Amino acid sequence: MQSITDTQKSLERSLLTSFIDANVSDSDPHLRADLLCNSVGEKGEYIKVLPELLDELKDCDSFDMSVAFITQGGLSLLKQTLKDDVYGEGRKDKVKGRLLTTDYNLFTDPRALRQIEKYFPELQIKLYRCEDAVGFHTKGFMFTRGDECRFIIGSSNLTQNALTTNFEWNIRLVSHKTGQLPKKIKTEFEYLWEHPNSFPLKEVIDDYEVEWRAARKRFKQNRIVATQQETVKAIRIEPNSMQKVFIKNVTELYLSGQTKALLISATGTGKTYAAALAVRHLMNLRTKKEDESSKVLKAPKKILFIVHREQIAIQAKKSFERVIGTKNLSYGLVSGHSFEIDKDLVFGTMQTLSKAEVLEGINPKKFDLVVIDEVHRAGADSYSKIMAHLQPDFWLGMTASPDRPDGKDIYKIFDNNIAYEIRLQGALEEDLLVPFRYYGIADLEIDSLKSDKLKDFSCVEFDQRVDHVIKQAEVYGHAGDRVKGLVFCRTIEECAAFSEKFNKKGFKTVALSGKDSMEKRLECVEKLSHGEGEGRLDYIFSVDIFNEGIDVPEINQVIFLRPTESPIIFVQQLGRGLRKAEDKEFLVVLDFIANYQNNYLIPVALSGDNSYDKDVMRKVVGLGTRTIPGASTIEFQTVVKQRILDSIDTARTNDAALLKESYRILKNKLGRIPRLTEYKDHNGIDPVKFFMNPKYRSYYGFLKENEDSYQVRLTPRAESMIRYLSSKLGAAKRIEECVLLRLALQNPNGVLKEDFESILQNELKLNPSPLLLKSVFNNLSANFFRNEIEKKGAGDVVFVTRTESGDFRASNQLKEELENNGPGFRDCLEDLLDFMTQRYEDRFSKRYKDTSLCLYEKYSYEDVCRLLNWPKNPPAQNIGGYKYDETTKTLPVFVNYHKAEDAIAYEDRFESEKNLIALSKTKRSVDSDDAKRIYKQSPENEENKIYLFVRKNKNDSEAKSFYFLGEMKAEGMPEPVKVPSGADPSKMENAFEIQYVLDTPVRNDIYDYLCGE
Prior knowledge:
Blueprint: H1 4-20, E1 34-36, E2 39-40, E3 46-47, H2 49-59, E4 62-67, H3 72-86, E5 96-102, H4 110-119, E6 124-128, E7 139-145, E8 148-154, H5 160-164, E9 170-176, H6 180-193, E10 198-200, H7 201-232, H8 241-255, E11 260-265, H9 271-283, E12 303-307, H10 310-324, E13 331-335, E14 338-339, E15 345-349, H11 350-353, H12 356-360, E16 369-372, H13 381-389, E17 394-399, H14 410-413, E18 418-422, H15 424-429, E19 436-442, H16 451-454, H17 460-476, E20 485-488, H18 492-504, E21 509-511, H19 518-530, E22 539-542, E23 557-560, H20 567-575, E24 587-593, H21 601-607, H22 614-623, E25 633-636, H23 638-650, H24 656-670, H25 677-681, H26 688-692, H27 699-706, H28 716-729, H29 736-746, H30 753-763, H31 770-780, H32 788-794, E26 800-802, E27 808-810, H33 812-820, H34 823-844, E28 858-859, H35 861-867, H36 876-879, E29 890-897, E30 909-910, E31 915-919, H37 929-934, E32 945-952, E33 962-980, E34 988-998, H38 1004-1011
Parallel strand pairs: 4-5, 5-6, 11-17, 11-18, 12-15, 12-16, 13-15, 16-17, 19-24, 19-25, 20-22, 20-23, 21-22, 23-24, 29-32
Antiparallel strand pairs: 1-9, 2-3, 4-7, 6-10, 7-8, 8-9, 13-14, 26-27, 28-33, 30-31, 31-34, 32-33, 33-34
Helix pairs in contact: 2-3, 3-4, 4-7, 8-9, 9-10, 20-21, 21-22, 22-23, 22-38, 28-34, 29-30, 29-31, 29-34
């Protein structure tokens, strides 16, 4: 604990930054005043009030909250933090917490208050009963931590949208406990807490709930009346923003003479309504005259809508009737129970329409426009028969998941005409789906059990697991009055066992599988959605029959009791609960996670990021809610975080099978071989994975091995050049080499230096220093290898050479290979350079100070030496923990955090996000050259720059690289210490300890990852 003097100094410095001079950067960011709001940052990150509130809760000794309104959604945002961090079993000191809310406007949800009372009894709650003329609008959160008092005061209530999406302004302030502000706030809170109108919750909750439900009933009745009045007025349904774009694109395809279009839209986003609105628009197009240029001579009049189940056909028919209307139009149903094929708009099931006798009776030209729902099934024989027989003017396919694990190319069936695409992330951002609360929860330690033990559902361990699941499901709860849950298990037997155990505990559940009839499934769905009392169902257990093709908007809780094996299936199953419904403010998702090998797929699925970039995965785990749009949240228990991070470390994300699958998906989508830049454009895998694969080492190498239609074949030297450029420079951590090489391609016979320097200085605003120019030349002239063996192994990879005057020009090797290989080699180079430019601009263009490095990006030893413009590339073992380069006066420090037991016993450790304690190399005294360079103790060392690079324990099986954490300075004086000898740990050797202060505090998610166990 700091003395009051130190605390005052820190606060004074932070107040100087906050209120006097923003350029004062050495104050503690955690003590500065800040505006907390809900917005989107410069890099697309989601800024929300919620994470700031949760951070304060996790670290406080006590807290007081005074808010006008509390909802179920608002409470759900705090549950995991209250359960694990505030009142968890691991918390040594009990946190004193008080919550004051009101009955103002009967807005606060009594169901939320009862949940607090039941599951967090340590938290004191009072309800302020407002008098008729007096309002209650306080929104304040007060926290104490040691001598600090911290406040979040502004506009946010304890509601879902106020903490995540609404435009809100809240100020965070920090004060010493002896300050005037905390005393005034505490006095005001105590006044309200002890006010005669503030009642302990138990005394008033029953009466308040009666009042609240009566008011809610009146509201619903008024809304029903208003809806009936709107129906009488026959209000026209208008498209939302997503549907407008879709309609525009479909219309353009139709008018241009195209015959097929595909709508890719996340489950629950209203594909049927989108299709109805598009059909309405097309049916109302004015017909073109024969002499006009358009190929379309008529608007569609006869429509067929194909689904895979009668119930969905009936629902679709109702939706179309509501959107298009019934005036002068007839609607028909074709299924096992009806055959109304001669209507204007026909809604039929695939099972009936695909029968030979039915198809033979339908004129192929009967329908002008055919819509196929769930078109990812179109690869099946039944759909193929229908599409082979019918000859409409236009086909419209709709699906949430076109990228099928079975390899079927749905894109090709629809001529690769994607009219519109909106995936889960976009749908959440557009508020087309209900927000979800994802909780990653530790499953009981079943990993050590033998497989036959796992199948014994009568064992004690299974009973314990059931109790664990039930407890978590009850605590995390659900929206609305009762649970309506869907549970996904590993096997049919496990489903049955869980259902049986749940039923014995008083729940109403059923296990369903493919063996159950559709009638039984629909009956169970109805009981889950609308059943009451003994006729209800609380949960349905299944393996995969609910992955798609059935709509149950009322589902308010989804539980995963199986490992995540596929991001596609994860999103399909999650989507079962994402449809909006009445009294469903949010969806609760409980994912029980054990030590599964594929846990790294969880952040891939949640983020929707298909790059398989491990740092993106770690960011999702570390930042959680900050990485997802809207009011949705992502939270992991601490032990689960570590399980997923361990899985990320060991995952093989440049594996040939993954590369082939990612390539296949994008090739299907585009209908051709993708360019490297198109992987990012279409949310595909990071192409650097192709470069890092030890077999391929370039995109050319991958295509040559795996794509039959790829005809390019390079000479051995040209292939070596592509391989070198891809594997050494393809990650585009610096743009300069790319610029010079592009100039060499454009002007292979001219000098390049003047144009090169001009582009750097005038277009890229970079300093073309002599050191930089020499470094770039070294990298493109085969002069930056560690040794001759490595250089020989790379081949003759010289791209540029120097003239006698010292200018740059294209090498003879480059010119010869451009001539010998025809357009193929140039195309490979240009594709690679385009990708490097794209990647640099996206990830590495915002450089740190005057370096070629980017804060929080990852770099290998070789990357660092190259980007710091070192003249030589020393072997990693010669660098050790740090190395000084006299030419550039740079000293990078490399820290392997949490070193393996057999590593040299350095004890480098973070004291905080801004302070690092590190040790020198062995056999170094406090007056050694190392100490003089680090502490800048002589004139020749005053300009030295010390940069910090940290990685975690060398765990990552693929990337042996370090996070760049910025510049740092050594404070004070070196402290002599003794450390075990690397050669003989029983002997002690001299070293010194260094107190480093970082220029920029380490970002929270990276700090937690590095320091986590």
